[in-house]
Amino acid sequence: MSFEALGLPPSLVTILEREKYDKPYPIQEQAIPEILNGKDVLGIAQTGSGKTASYVLPVIARLKGLDKPKDRKPDVLVLVPTRELAEQVKDVFNLFERGFEHDVKTMAIYGGVSINPQMKSLFGVSIIVATPGRLLDLVDSNAVHLDKVQILILDEADKLLNMGFKDEMNRIFDMLPKKRQNLLFSATLSEKLDGLNTVLLQNPITVKVNTEEWNIEQINQISYSIDEDKKGPFLRYLIKSKEMQQVLVFTASTYKADNVADKLRKNGIDARAIHGKKNQNSRNQALKDFKEGRIRVLVATDLLARGIDIEFLPHVINYELPRSPKDYVHRIGRTGRAEASGEAISLITPEDEHHFKIIQKKMKIKVDRIDGNDIEIGKS
């Protein structure tokens, strides 16, 4: 099926062709026509399945031709759990807004940066992509009003609930007009999300892309047994011996992320840490530099496990395992996105063995194991 057959306007189809979007992914095939028809949609799809474009494209198409008044009342509100996801979603809107005959102004708003520039820039914005807390700060400052929102989107709705935003979101919902289109996208359908679905969605169309339809099979998973005291040298050995030029390394804590990045740099590997204790400008710059190839290794906590689109990322390494199998899938899903292949490596200490067995059981995949302790790594 083509994008044109989904009902998108020719101007958007032209942009898709220019950006080498050859054909819709399953989530896009199912969601775009329903959103164009004004239906409420509950979309269940893993990160990396084309989810963002599945709502961005029809939303832009629906705004096409609307004469946006110059005020502080957006037409579209997208709620997201993290600052990085806010920036990513904004970038996707900006990509597809190009070439339109009228401005569809999009703005990302989140905490961790000065609020004053955000307050000044909200005038005339059509689409706001926001984290809940900073949005409420701006509402309280009278810098934005939500009574004209036509479309509400919750991206990573399960994460919004798990991160404790429920009270803030309920306050935001109370400010929105009752008559609006609601779109909820999530990696999983939990009991919490099901309750939210009941409150928000009116006769929703459920669009679900199963994990089997996702690209986890395209990720080559390897694990290495390694003693804890050998992990640092072994990580450096892997990066150098495999000549990895772009690798995302995950740790379980901010302290460990800083420590690993520091040891990599001291051993001649260009690396930087990114986590919640870094200021927003530092995080944005590190991610930008990594995407553009100026940093070889980015060491991250689970802050980046969802919602960050790093196109054609070849390698992910779990230096430490995450707490849950779901987080493991989201981590390795940074590689092997869409139709690209990728490699995910996990370093397994004796203490990790039981937990890693649970992760494999949940994924219904047995990950090949190599004994890293037997590998002669030399100086690294």
Description:
- By secondary structure, the protein is α/β, with parallel strands linked by helices.
- The chain folds into two domains: 4-210, P-loop containing nucleotide triphosphate hydrolases (Rossmann fold); 215-374, P-loop containing nucleotide triphosphate hydrolases (Rossmann fold, 3-Layer(aba) Sandwich).
- The chain has 14 helices and 14 strands.
- It has helices at residues 10-18, 26-36, 51-63, 83-97, 115-121, 132-140, 157-162, 166-175, 191-200, 231-241, 254-266, 280-291, 325-332, 353-363, and strands at residues 41-44, 76-79, 106-109, 127-130, 151-155, 181-186, 205-208, 219-225, 247-250, 271-274, 297-300, 315-318, 342-348, 368-371.
- Strands 3-4-2-5-6-1-7 form a seven-stranded parallel beta sheet. A seven-stranded parallel beta sheet has the order 10-11-9-12-13-8-14, sandwiched between helices.
- Helix 2 runs parallel beside helix 3 and helix 3 crosses helix 4.
- It is globular and about 65 Å long.
- The termini are far apart.
